[in-house]
Amino acid sequence: MSSRPSPEVRLDHPVAGISRHQTSGDRSAWQDVEESKEIQVEVPAAIRTRMSQHRLLDPTPDHSELGHMIESAAHAPDHGRLHPWRFITVRGHAREALGQCFAVDSGTKSPEQVAQLPLRAPLLVTIVFRPRGNTIPGWEQLVATAGVVNNLMLLLHNGGYGSIWKTGKHVSSPSARAMLDVHKDESLLGWLYVGTPDPTTVSRRAELPSLDEHLSDFQPTTCLAQARGH
After folding, report:
1. Angle between helices 138-158 and 63-73 (to 10 degrees)
2. First CA to last CA across the chain, in angstroms?
3. Using CA atoms, how far apart are residues 213 and 36, in angstroms rounded to an integer?
4. Is the peptide bond between 7 and the residue preceding it cis, with omega within 30 degrees of 0?
């Protein structure tokens, strides 16, 4: 677990997801780590072996390690370099406060059960999409944000951690949005539940899609013939 006293550390630097209070000395230290850090898993292996983990335990990456991962994840394609995203970590008792927000806005008969949802992992990384007023279409900015999150999940896996991206109706919870200070022009895209995978649990690997259904070769003569038919 993080040794920092605050359970809600914002990672909302407009460039690399670094805290606005991050010092230049810390930044240099992160660069030193990046230069010396050995790659634990080859990229294809990391992609093929990553799975959503439903049972997560301590330890989790601390503020510095998570920030380093986000800095690396930010190398995802980002048209216009707008960085239309920010992250808010929720740890410790802050998870209980978030759970209370879920319960208030749940509209169910079992608010106590809903309040327990954020306790399913020792660390929650809140994903906030903040589109920029720009010529870049909003959908491109959303895709860029999803690319950063996907990279982050791979980096967590590479670091020995597990994660699962949770969404659901709680992303629209007014209480949660207010507590997390999500602005009106921002969208909550859910939370990465993060921790160390429970070694006693075996996760099922999803079946791979049929390649024939998702990959095809462009045949201009065929397309032209079809166009003429219309």
Report:
1. 130
2. 62
3. 42
4. no
pLDDT digits over 104-158, tens only? 998 877 999 999 999 999 999 999 999 998 899 999 999 999 999 999 999 999 9
Look at residues 23, 24, 15, 164 and name the one whose alpha carbon lies nearest to residue 75.
15
* Secondary structure (3-state) at 25: helix
pLDDT at 1 over 50: no
Report pLDDT digits (tens) over 6-24: 333 334 333 333 333 333 3
> What is the chain's length?
230
Q: With the C-alpha atoms ordered 218, 221, 222, 226, is the resulting torsion angle positive or negative?
A: positive
Report the 10 Å Cβ neighbour count for 59: 14
Which residue is listed with tokens 């327990």?
Answer: 116
Retrieve residue 12's tokens: 């909302």
Three-state DSSP at 47 gives: helix
Residue-wise pLDDT for 35-52, tens only, equals 544 545 588 989 999 999
Q: Cα–Cα distance between 40 and 46 in angstroms, integer?
A: 9
Between CA 74 and CA 15 the distance in angstroms is 8
% of the chain beyond a pLDDT of 70: 78
Which alpha helices (DSSP H) does the chain contain, by range? Answer: 24-36, 43-49, 63-73, 94-104, 111-115, 138-158, 174-179, 211-214, 220-229
Residue type, 80: G
Residue with tokens 């990672």: 11
